[in-house]
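Reminder to self: C-alpha cells first, then the designed residues, so the page reads top to bottom the way the pipeline ran.
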C-alpha cells in the first residue's frame, strides 16, 4: 500500500511540477534562439485535466517576452498566447519539440524603431521612378525632378516621409512631406493610406502626386522577418501610448 501511495505521489510530482518546468525551459530556449536572446522570457502553461501534459497536450500557453529581436527589428515586447498546443518531448532540437502550434500575438514596437527599419533607399527609388514620368507645366522640369534626403518620422502617431524635391541638378529645391495612417494589407505588408502631401508648406493637389502612395507602398514588409521556423501574420495595428501595437499570429513549427 505504501509503495502504491508513493508511486501515485511521484506521478503527481511529475505531472504537477517536473513536466511543466521542463516545458517552460524548452519554450524559453526555443524563443531565445528564435528571438535573438531577448532580455526576459516569462512562460505560463495550463492543462486540464493535468495528466494531458504526459502526452504533450496543453490547453493554453502564455508567453511574455521583453526586448526580442526578429530579423533586424527589435520589439519592445511580444505577448504570445496559444490555445491549444501540442509538444513532442522526444525532440531535442530547439524547434522540433513544438509539434504544432498557432500562437496569437501582440507585438509592440516604438515608432522610432520602426522608422529606422524602413528601407529609405527603396522609398527614394520608388518616388524617383514615379517622378521621372511626370509631365509638369514647366517643360524643362518634366522628367528632371527627383527627391533626396528622404527620412521617416512619426508625428502625432502618424508616419511622415520627408525630404526635398530637387530639379535642374539641385538648382531648384523644395521640401516635401507625405503623411498618413498605417494599415496592414492582405499580403502582410504595412502601408501608408489616406495621404496628405505638403510641398513648401502647401497641400499638393495634383492627382498624380496624390496617388504617390500607390507607388511607394508598402513601406515595410513583415514577410522579411519570417523564417522557416517562425512566421508572423498580422491582422491589424494601432497606436496607443506612443507605441505601435500589432495584432496577429505567430506560427512556430519545425
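Designed residues (254 positions):
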Amino acid at each position: 500500500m505504501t509503495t502504491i501511495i508513493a508511486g501515485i505521489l511521484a506521478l503527481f510530482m511529475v505531472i504537477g511540477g517536473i513536466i511543466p518546468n521542463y516545458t517552460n525551459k524548452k519554450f524559453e530556449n526555443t524563443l531565445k534562439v528564435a528571438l535573438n536572446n531577448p532580455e526576459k522570457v516569462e512562460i505560463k502553461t495550463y492543462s486540464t485535466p493535468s495528466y494531458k501534459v504526459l502526452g504533450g497536450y496543453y490547453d493554453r500557453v502564455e508567453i511574455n517576452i521583453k526586448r526580442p529581436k526578429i530579423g533586424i527589428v527589435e520589439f519592445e515586447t511580444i505577448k504570445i498566447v496559444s490555445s491549444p498546443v501540442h509538444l513532442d518531448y522526444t525532440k531535442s532540437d530547439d524547434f522540433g519539440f513544438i509539434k504544432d502550434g498557432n500562437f496569437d500575438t501582440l507585438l509592440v514596437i516604438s515608432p522610432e524603431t520602426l522608422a529606422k527599419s524602413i528601407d529609405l533607399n527603396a522609398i527614394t527609388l520608388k518616388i524617383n521612378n514615379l517622378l521621372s514620368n511626370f509631365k509638369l507645366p514647366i517643360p524643362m522640369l518634366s522628367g528632371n525632378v527627383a527627391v533626396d534626403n528622404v527620412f521617416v518620422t512619426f508625428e502625432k502617431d502618424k508616419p511622415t516621409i520627408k525630404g526635398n524635391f530637387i530639379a535642374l541638378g539641385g538648382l531648384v529645391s523644395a521640401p516635401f512631406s507625405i503623411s498618413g495612417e498605417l494599415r496592414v494589407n492582405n499580403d502582410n505588408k504595412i502601408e501608408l493610406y489616406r495621404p496628405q502631401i505638403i510641398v513648401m508648406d502647401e497641400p499638393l493637389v495634383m492627382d498624380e502626386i496624390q496617388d504617390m502612395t500607390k507607388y511607394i507602398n508598402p513601406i515595410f514588409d513583415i514577410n522579411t522577418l519570417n523564417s522557416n521556423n517562425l512566421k508572423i501574420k498580422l491582422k491589424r495595428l494601432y497606436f496607443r501610448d506612443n507605441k505601435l501595437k500589432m495584432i496577429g499570429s505567430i506560427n512556430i513549427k519545425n
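The helical segments are 2-34, 111-117, 120-131, 207-210, 212-216.
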